[in-house]
Amino acid sequence: MQGEGLKKLQSGQPISTRELLLLIAQLSWPAILAQISSVVMQYIDTAMVGQLGSNASAAIGVVATTSWLFGDLCIALTIGFNVAVAQALGARQSEKARGIMKLAFLVCMAFSLVMMAIALGITGNLPRWLRADPAIWQDASAYFLVYVLSLPFMQMNNLCGGLLRSAGNMKTPGICMVVMCLLDVVFNAFLIFPSGTLRVLGVTLPGFGLGVLGASMGTALSQVVIAVVLVYILLVRSPELHLRRGEKARFTAAQLKRCLSISAPVMGERTILSTARMVTTAIVAPLGIIATAANSFAITAESLCYMSAFGVQAAASTLVGQSVGAGRKDLTYRLGWLTVALGMGLMVITGTLLYVLAPAMIGMMAVDEAVIELGVRVLRIEAFAEPLFGASIVASGVFQGTGSTLVPMLLNFGTMWGIRVPLSAILAAKWGLVGVWVAMALQLGVCGICFLIRLAGKRWLPKETLQ
Asked: What CA–CA distance (Å, rounded) separates 279 from 275?
């Protein structure tokens, strides 16, 4: 059914709203599963390390935002290539799509190596720059170091998964992310804890006792395994994108410029968001180990909530991109609103669950009662902002599908630096970590409203699709 829906989209056949909703759902659920699995990996790391105490948890939390900055830049670079491939496939230009894919491999791998080199240069001083407690500097630097070394493999995971999704194959990346999550559990079990700490089915497991470093190594090893698998599936098994014998790598400077023109604003947006989070981390760190650990746990727990919206975002970007490539004037705007409505609906549900289950979610990771209490308080504040947060996430994917990425960057910049950062600094002095999360909730709400206004205005549509 999914294949039939995409064929109808590409061939110009009429598609009912019911069929569109079914197609969106079919493309969304594997992407949602993949997104949730990636967060579960963070959850696993945090929960396992949390058993070692608040200092170990804070060590991961203090470098998390910087890790996201480098990871997000690598992810953002792939978006322009993913959109170009989706539009080429929508126009039934498979050879052009494969040429863009080859260009993507060259550019993205080179970029990940540059990012790795830059990150290695700041590893030793990063915890000090973020104003972390000296007691956690060594563990924080060790965790970040291993993360940095895994960046090229993470880049390949994101690129291959994104290209497969652009071709409408959501299931394979989703399954691979689940397997990566399971591998992370296995590797962590052996690497984090000393021998004799864990027992499975009555058998005492050997262990290396590496603590925080082991958590980072477990995640990195799982990334390496899945990167190899995804590269094979994309280049050998994908019906649309697998390499053809004798087919040369055909791509042009114009294609590169087009892809980078889409990716650059997204990279700017991710940089804005990540640097603002780094500043927020620096605001939180002086509040103490308890606040730093609670903030880390709450961020990880909340991310489980909004991953459903990121899954719908992936489907939105693919479907909108293919509809633009197919010249479907009748579908682009409809798909935009249908996907955003679905994303907001899911976030109403997950936001409610976040509020109700906050004690259990934090309690699974933390052992310190003070950390659990503070984490629950801030999560319940954030729960009210989730639906509008979902609107901005999915609408961003819609805009990416058309190549309209500059305005979303500006909206995120304005709300992040105009609301969240200054308000966090002001309210942290009065209310501590609670004030920081109040500022975050307000910013997400305003940003979501701005994205809905942008979606309603139709200026994001390519000129040829305006009616």
From this structure: 6
